[in-house]
Structures
1.
Amino acid sequence: MQNFLRLWHDSGIYHLDLGQGVMLLVGLLLLFLAIRKGFEPLLLVPIGFGAILANIPGAGLSLSAVENAIASGYPDVLAQIAQVLGASADAGMQALNDAYKHAPAAVQADAYRLATDLGYANGMLYSFYTVAIGSGVAPLVIFMGVGAMTDFGPLLANPKTLFLGAAAQFGIFATVLGAVGLSVTGVIDFSIQDAAAIGIIGGADGPTAIYVASILAPELLGAIAVAAYSYMALVPLIQPPIMRALTNDDERKIRMEQMRVVSKREKIVFPLILLILVALILPSAAPLLGMFCFGNLMRECGVVERLSDTSQNALINITTIFLGLSVGSKLAADKFLDPKTLGILALGIIAFGIGTAMGVLTAKFMNLFCKHKINPLIGSAGVSAVPMAARVSNKVGLEANPQNYLLMHAMGPNVAGVIGSAVAAGVMISIVSSL
Amino acid sequence: MQNFLRLWHDSGIYHLDLGQGVMLLVGLLLLFLAIRKGFEPLLLVPIGFGAILANIPGAGLSLSAVENAIASGYPDVLAQIAQVLGASADAGMQALNDAYKHAPAAVQADAYRLATDLGYANGMLYSFYTVAIGSGVAPLVIFMGVGAMTDFGPLLANPKTLFLGAAAQFGIFATVLGAVGLSVTGVIDFSIQDAAAIGIIGGADGPTAIYVASILAPELLGAIAVAAYSYMALVPLIQPPIMRALTNDDERKIRMEQMRVVSKREKIVFPLILLILVALILPSAAPLLGMFCFGNLMRECGVVERLSDTSQNALINITTIFLGLSVGSKLAADKFLDPKTLGILALGIIAFGIGTAMGVLTAKFMNLFCKHKINPLIGSAGVSAVPMAARVSNKVGLEANPQNYLLMHAMGPNVAGVIGSAVAAGVMISIVSSL
Amino acid sequence: MQNFLRLWHDSGIYHLDLGQGVMLLVGLLLLFLAIRKGFEPLLLVPIGFGAILANIPGAGLSLSAVENAIASGYPDVLAQIAQVLGASADAGMQALNDAYKHAPAAVQADAYRLATDLGYANGMLYSFYTVAIGSGVAPLVIFMGVGAMTDFGPLLANPKTLFLGAAAQFGIFATVLGAVGLSVTGVIDFSIQDAAAIGIIGGADGPTAIYVASILAPELLGAIAVAAYSYMALVPLIQPPIMRALTNDDERKIRMEQMRVVSKREKIVFPLILLILVALILPSAAPLLGMFCFGNLMRECGVVERLSDTSQNALINITTIFLGLSVGSKLAADKFLDPKTLGILALGIIAFGIGTAMGVLTAKFMNLFCKHKINPLIGSAGVSAVPMAARVSNKVGLEANPQNYLLMHAMGPNVAGVIGSAVAAGVMISIVSSL
Amino acid sequence: MQDTLMQQGIDLMIYGMGTVLVFLTLLVIATLIMSRFVMRFFPDPVVAEPSRPAIQTGRTAEVDPAVRSAIEKAIALHRARR
Amino acid sequence: MQDTLMQQGIDLMIYGMGTVLVFLTLLVIATLIMSRFVMRFFPDPVVAEPSRPAIQTGRTAEVDPAVRSAIEKAIALHRARR
Amino acid sequence: MQDTLMQQGIDLMIYGMGTVLVFLTLLVIATLIMSRFVMRFFPDPVVAEPSRPAIQTGRTAEVDPAVRSAIEKAIALHRARR
Ligand code: NA
Ligand code: NA
Ligand code: NA
């Protein structure tokens, strides 16, 4: 009988609270969007599944050993943990969790050892998160793989499209200001770290967003990643109205001239140029852009095809699986079911909109000076969201003129946007982490 | 001359004791069985090789840094270690090893730091074990890959075969009772944790057995894994006599009706149904069955083929290599050359036998009620041992009736057995770890 | 304005010192040699890129958290670090770094926790180094992959070519003596550990060199790895003059008899014979040769093709990427721009030369006794540098006699050289680490 | 103590085997309901493939699309050249 | 405090966006110089392929050389057999 | 001290090179015995392939069985269609 009670007390239904139930549905919704609607499935399938796993009541898969010990609720366990943390024995579980989170690293290590002595272990997803994201390695490895998949040819054929990739990052910083504004006006309480991490959603680049959020605002990582990937999938809905509103029919019909052929050597030298510029000007962007350039150099140099292949396939796939599950582990009820998440979702879509608009307007502005006119529709591709945004540019261009293939031309600003948001990530980390 | 002596003292022959010599032969025997006899070679080749590496005298590849320091036998090293462990300086190496093993985590950490300061390091296999099995991650990743290789179609076409997969798990619990009985009667001293870990051999599923043993009885992990994989390879010898003894010729000739076609969407929803049931009823099975369902969802959802491919190939292969070597590292002489191993081997084969018998008998029992008769030969496939047990059902069926292809029908209970033993693993961990 | 100053202070140019500038050029030079000149690109592309990343001024990618905290230079940070390390608060950054490096492991752990509390983190490359090389795992995994790529057929057809592989390792030990000589005569100050690690360059085997250097002389790892891989690429320039000088035309024209066919079973048993010999005679070579034999057994046994494939492709490629970046992280200005590097480069080429000469001379010596004459040109392949050195033997042989195909015959000593240098590595680690 | 161990073993058996049976029974029920529901309300647009062999122990048997298209191109080319 | 937060946000915007613009402008300049330099002094021995679609989201589209050669051999064999 | 270093170097050379020679000599002997033993008592059922080039630096050259069968099928189909 005692065992039956134990099984019942160990069962999920016994522990289920409303929040976890809602989060299980959120996980299923993400899976539905990914599988049925094709929303960035490579990331949202693992994230959605991870969200379900993280919210299995009583399993504690996303908790550390200490949090699992606290969650057990046994008074003698709580008392021992409290003693190590220097908290009051009857402080309550929430207070102990807070005390643990803010304790110095040495105290956390002591508490961890005590928890393992008491038989508690880190949850599976917590371990994945620590290795994949806590260490920062997974977004960097994915960035390396993305670099190995990126062809800078269209950018090199027309380098001034880099300006479009720069302009579209204005969405990032406008959103920072928006988040700060919400906080100042008392609507939602965001710190400057939170604001910077939310802004990076406007970079429309998944690994960059995860990397920045894991450093500046790990609590918000789940919501930020979900927003970033969802809006990247929604780019075909978000961007066209803005693009049409800011251009007239003549502008949309502009035909761009055939691109010049880019030589192999230019492609080999470009990642090195970019790397040296990063080294000299913005070292804080070195991890992200360094790995990106490394992947691209492996791709273009032509002598390490084995390594390039692996970084585009086995390595990026393995990393994606664990990155996705780890992000999902941050979709716990108490973090995600919070007004902040609504704020993040609202600010994120504004960021995409502003980025799109700035890209288009900057293209029109450049046409005032340049001899070779740019079709402003390719400006919107500067937000990144590779390669979706470039396809959107192409599609809207074809609507205006069925002969006007913009895809190649839009790839320039598209990959420029990746560089732009990585630069923005570097500068934000540099400024914010020292405030 | 001193150097020559040192080389001689460092050589393997100088250190070789009888146990290690025997274990080297055991390792070679496992390799022979794997390579020549085809006994589950994907696991037994790495396990056998790991067993040889672990028993290289004087190399200490499967020892931690502290154990290596103790094994050096230098009196001043022993004295310092003893001081940290709070043991007597002349306690002897065995006593120090025991003191280390039972010390609190904080003391172990201190001892580890001291050992590294003295120039000792964790052995290669010890590091592999810590990362692959100690963390629990390798069996889970393999389970994900197995999920990505599993087609639930036959199970979905005929869900009542799940009962066969349930019944065959009786072998697990009967074996637990057997192990307890051996202990109570004083034959071999097994704890309840040991008994549960031994029982899981009856689950006929390698990663599940390794996962449970690593949590409940790491000392016995080597013997349990070897027994599990060996008996899985021996299924074509173990099962047919039992199957023939419990059925008559008419029963063996029963032809099962053609399976219905299972839709893609059913296959997508099934792993989610299973996951939700696990979440609500048995959270302690969530790591194993969660990863299994995740792999299967990646397979069936059709939008993440990259990830599914990688989890079925590169990722599962890499993990298998290190899992096998890690299991082999637990085949040290002092652990394996023990009466317990004989007990484990004997109980393991009993477990397989009882599971097989219960599967067949349950199929006959179900035929008393069901309209669509089940060929009782597919009941034996409920032990898991995928896909060997299903092939055995097919082969014995063909002997009775050369037109009677049971393979597809047997795949239903076969994969049901995987679910059944993962459920059994969850409930055993839940009950035992709180006793 | 303050932020602008901060950005400027964070920029690379502000921090750039001459050493780092030179090292950036060294990194670019390595990339040029790898990409344009084809110098072992699989390793030198990642190493060169890692060297650039490691020398990005102000980024601290190759520094630990504590070193990054010290490098920040904030007086209050330095004071706290100094207190933990038991150093004087105004000791200066260099003294603190030294104190940290030589502190006991427990103090290092305290300093690390303090640094993380202060907001500093391990650099990306430092993390890669710790996981890939510090743990010793990356060279071992690469050795496993090399084993899975190696065919011992030519060696088994003519086992006495093993003597050539043994003789060529004389280059290793002559170089040790050379390094010791430089130290005794006061030219460059090498310890016996340094000398042993430098000597292993003469083994002409990358992973072995990295493995030994990471254990005996981590400070010199960068220079040793660069020297080893560069000279392996230069084998077609280094060896032929020596080979021609030590042989006359008649010797170079010796035609070797057709090799016998080697059976599958011999190939399966050979790695086990080698493993058992290692176990009995030289346990300190067990990690390297154990993994090598494991890879080869997976290749030859024919029942684990999945694992063999993965260890030859995805796994070795992934490991190579991180190994290369990690080696590059050791190319910091203060370590590499040192007279020791010049000494290492000079000694390394001498090691290759002596090894080549000893291989050729031993082949001539063996011809004094053997019935079946050996073409002395295959002796040079005994240095390893697989498969480049064997190709060089073949090429020089064809010059003397256009019908004289030596490639297959040279593969015997070539792979024997791999075994020989791994044995040498084991014996050096065994002797040196106990001096 | 030994009585207790025996008791623990029996408890483990009863509650363990019970849980397995209850869980898999619920799974049978849930699966039947799900299958009926899906077949009724969300039938596959086209008929799905017949159920394949359950566990593939080797690599996926399907040919890579790139390979298949290469073969088709090669054959088309070959046919065109004749 | 709230003023400070606003100020921090504005600072972040000005210095952040400024850095992005300056960095990418320098990159445009450096790229133009590099391209001109490479095209003038180190032209590719043969003309390079036209720029491909920028990011391949799936596997590399090229067929493995081994596969291609197998196809070619198969077709050659096939042709020879006729 | 410097004498000691020189002495250590010489020791390392003598014992190191000695071990390498002894080890590889034993390996030669063990290999010869093993080969004779295997060839005499356990000859391969069929003759093995001639020894291949020792280390393959690239991917395995063999074509994937799935690919080969796809090619064969494609060609069979092509032939059938004519
Ligand atoms: Na962007
Ligand atoms: Na089972
Ligand atoms: Na060598």
2.
Amino acid sequence: MSMIEFHNVEKYYGDFHALHNINLTIEAGETVVLIGPSGSGKSTLIRSINGLEQIREGQLIVNGQDLADPKTDINRIRKNVGMVFQHFNLYANKSVLENIMLAPRIVLHRKEDENKKIAMEMLDRVGLADQATKMPAQLSGGQKQRIAIARSLAMRPKCLLFDEPTSALDPEMVDDVLNIMKTIARDSSMTSLVVTHEMGFAREVANRVIFMADGRIVEDDSKDKFFNGEPTNERARQFLSKILH
Amino acid sequence: MSMIEFHNVEKYYGDFHALHNINLTIEAGETVVLIGPSGSGKSTLIRSINGLEQIREGQLIVNGQDLADPKTDINRIRKNVGMVFQHFNLYANKSVLENIMLAPRIVLHRKEDENKKIAMEMLDRVGLADQATKMPAQLSGGQKQRIAIARSLAMRPKCLLFDEPTSALDPEMVDDVLNIMKTIARDSSMTSLVVTHEMGFAREVANRVIFMADGRIVEDDSKDKFFNGEPTNERARQFLSKILH
Amino acid sequence: MLNNFIAAYSPDNLRYLFGGLGITLLVSVASIIGSFIIGAILGIVRYVKFKYFSAVVGFIIDVIRNLPLILILFFIYFGLPNIGVKPEVIPAAIFAMTIFESAMLAEIVRSGIQAVDPGQMEGARANGLTYWQGLWHIVLPQALVKMIPAIVSQFISLVKDTSLATIILLPEMLYRSQIIYGQNTNYIIPMFVAIAVLYFIVCYALSVLAHYLEKRQA
Amino acid sequence: MIHIFQDYGGTLLYGLGQTLLCSIIALICSLIIGTFFALLEESPNKFARGIARIYIEIFRNIPLLVITMFFYVVIPLYVMKMNGFTAGTIGLTLYTSAFIAETVRSGIRSVDPGQMEGARSNGLTFWQAMRYIVLPQAFRYVIPPLGNQFVNLVKNSSTLAFVGGFDLMYQGNAIASSSLETMAAYSAVGVLYLIVTMPISYYMRYLEKRLA
Amino acid sequence: GSQSLASRNVLKVDQQSKTITWGVKADTRLFGLLDTKDGKIKGFEVDLARALTKQMLGSKGKAKFIQVTSSTRMPMLKNGNIDAIIATMTNTPERRKQVSFSKTYFYAGQSLLVKKGSSIKNVKDLNQQKGTVLGVVGSDSVQNVAKVAPNAKVLQLTDYAQAMTALKSVQGQALTTDNGILYGMSVQNPDYVVTGGTFVAEPYGIAVDKAQTPFLKKLNQALTELRANGQYRKILHKWFHNVKGFDYEEAAKE
Ligand SMILES: Nc1ncnc2c1ncn2[C@@H]1O[C@H](COP(=O)(O)OP(=O)(O)OP(=O)(O)O)[C@@H](O)[C@H]1O
Ligand SMILES: Nc1ncnc2c1ncn2[C@@H]1O[C@H](COP(=O)(O)OP(=O)(O)OP(=O)(O)O)[C@@H](O)[C@H]1O
Ligand SMILES: NC(=O)CC[C@H](N)C(=O)O
Ligand SMILES: [Mg+2]
Ligand SMILES: [Mg+2]
């Protein structure tokens, strides 16, 4: 079964047509990188996958459930689909540990000791076990993002969405976050869809690279084709040359 | 005469010791790149050069005038020292042209027709002559930054300070800004001090690379020494390897 | 002049005036508690948008907010008996102040919630929390911290506004000062000094509290 | 309630006129005074900031009615003649100016500090930067809260009734006690207040949304 | 609302609770004035109300006092906050449309209070000099002035404490209301004098809701009894015997 399927999806913001006829299938275990100029609809596409944006037309099937169907319980989908944002969105009023433990406790009703064990495991995995009691405001950007990843992982999702997870970070913090993302991407049981301009990351771990422009998918290549064969789309080529300066 | 001279400068924010014993001389016409981890004091150092921050001890001589001397008219120094910020800081309530013409008019009392002529020249130089009547909010980040540079140039400064001028830009905008900065840097009558992590830029046009850590200058090399000879300081080496990933 | 002050601040007059301060504080505190609870509920109702209910509540809030408090005092004091309730002056004043201030606070609460970074709710939703869980665990606690200064300054207004209840003869501080200087012109200035100082102390203490809370939050 | 409008329409309109007149005068004056103190508070001069702080704290923390009564009762006794309308308008002005000072100040603060820094490093002096760059932007932020201050002014002008200011509330009291139809009279007065205040506060909310 | 009040028999209720709730003035010296020492309201009307209560309900009867001003007394009676108004209220035809009045218990007349040496000696002066005259919202005095001295400007304050303060701070040249009230003010403020005699008759009656005829009957009966047994005179004497220029017999007229 495919993890994510878009069939002729159309998305509007008021009158503005943000996504045009999107067709896209992502299989379980794939790591897909999504690139494109600012405003091309990358965030819109990725946010519609866990229902943060509602599509107007078409079918969007995530983990076997149709998001356009009003009977679908969006909260059930979100248990399986984690998301990491550009600005981290850590809960400002909760400690690091509480950030990680809150959703498992009140959504999955995970038992307190198990919850804590898993949370500490996740913190360990992102290399921040020693920061458990701090508040988000006391962390650097790179640390915040790693906590945000740990928070998503603690829900044990089948799929993780990343929306420019490194673009708000100081340059020397980028690597730490990318390294964690790489280990996640290599885990074949996890599907990831990543909006990023870090082409090194894409080269190293992506299966596919998708290029968007003006709300459309204009290029959908295997990694090798994209980086070696030169994209067939002219705008994608131009864009690539600019960001690889 | 040197353009900028720091002699044993100490800077505090309240109790926090932000700059430790800074000694630095920059000659007229030099292009100096300043790098270092977040919080190391790069912005503090550069901002103290045009008096946006006040130093507590030591001597800071800019264009022959001592900034620590209360008799020094800071506004006179600022006429000769332009600054370009990470977030552009264009005047949100003025059109592009007005952004450029305001300071020459009320500070230099430049005549209106000459003022306009120079402003248009500067706009031309940054490739945005056709955007003169727009408001800043209507521009992309890269365009804003180029306007900000034009605004500084219109004051005909002897020295330009750049504080991470490209780090808030979408990746595909970075090149346009860097290209303009390169032409400025190559102009031998202009002194520039640039905080940036764009090592390609540093390699191409810098005379010197300075590395800061924890409020101190820990490395001050010629470009070639820095990039080829490997910096002597361990932290600088580490940092360099991280941002050149 | 000094003699006037001494005479005006006779023990009897002072006792009487401080009694008025007591009533000012009683009415203030009771209305603060009442309006905080009601205002918070109304503010959430307004933010959350239950179809027609929120619109109706919103309209009523707007009507109350846009009327002078004096009128509301009249409506309560003279109007309630029309539906069979005959409030004494003090309960009437508390009731009127509570209604008025609840409407003001509802507005503060609504905009406080709106001021929380939308990313917080998105983070919570994406993390699997329901809308109400996100509101309760994440958004509301942060909103409360943000709106404390505005709430405290609304309470300062409330304390000051109790003086308007002289119009329904609430025997609070201003009313009592008028009774005292009504008897002797020489007491006018001493009385103004006294009540200005007393109001100032109470309100300034509150605003110092607000500043403290604001700082602690930043 | 309709017959109150029929019988006392002229009186009510006159009262409404006085209410608007004193609100507008007080708005203009308190805008000038308030902006002045806001600038003092934001100025680099410590002494000026202290003066501004004291002024603002005094008028924010004393009830409007006390300030108004002071001008109505004390000033004529010792300084100069002053009728209720004047005393009320002065009271409103001073009281409101403290709030406007706070509003304008927070407007100035909500202008990105980068604007001041950009202007300063572009060679402008502090006051030039304030005048050409920061204040014009601050006023845009400040229009909705200022509109709300105006609504408050209109509502607060009802304190003129205490000092015989011939405003809407004063006429309401007079009509209520001469017609002996208390509720009807005050309802009529309430409707007139709402006609003025509701549109303004809805418009301000719309502006607020648009600016955000 | 008023229906429930009309359907209620106030006399019965009061007899059961052994309490009559009176609306009295608290800002009017001699009639009803709040004493800042003990917070109690004191004056001729308060004493009279107390005596009437005993007369109507027996020796265990209690009088409860609620402060009113000229503008709040009518709505409060109509709303049932109080059972009766005994607050320097003149029995006028206009008011009789709304409430019932007892027999007259104090025969006052409208007059003027001015600063000693004022150029205004009587209503005519006021009219000619187009002066500002101060009054209190809800008193018929302000309406009378409009008729008697149409050129004078009238300024209405919320209560007599305010009006007196306004006179002192020269917001007007004269204060007008009933002579009895004005005497009370001049006792406290010797610089101010009652002048020009009375120009409108102001017989005070106790106001009761129109529907409460049994209460009114009982009240009138009690008033007659108090006049007959000398208590009325005693109370009047207690409050007015040392007021200079006050005409006893006039006031006691029925
Ligand atoms: N809430 C919204 N209301 C209206 N328009 C919106 C909204 N969100 C996004 N848009 C518009 O939809 C288009 C796509 O936006 P989106 O955020 O998906 O782009 P993006 O590719 O993620 O860009 P970036 O790289 O800048 O994040 C843009 O033109 C944007 O202005
Ligand atoms: N206004 C201020 N008040 C107090 N501390 C400050 C202030 N500005 C900067 N600092 C502190 O001074 C140190 C140096 O800050 P500075 O902004 O100069 O660093 P930087 O090298 O420019 O970092 P970045 O790469 O993040 O811009 C930091 O620890 C910072 O927290
Ligand atoms: N206190 C008063 O209002 C006295 C004035 C007059 N006796 C009246 O009934 O209106
Ligand atoms: Mg995006
Ligand atoms: Mg910096």
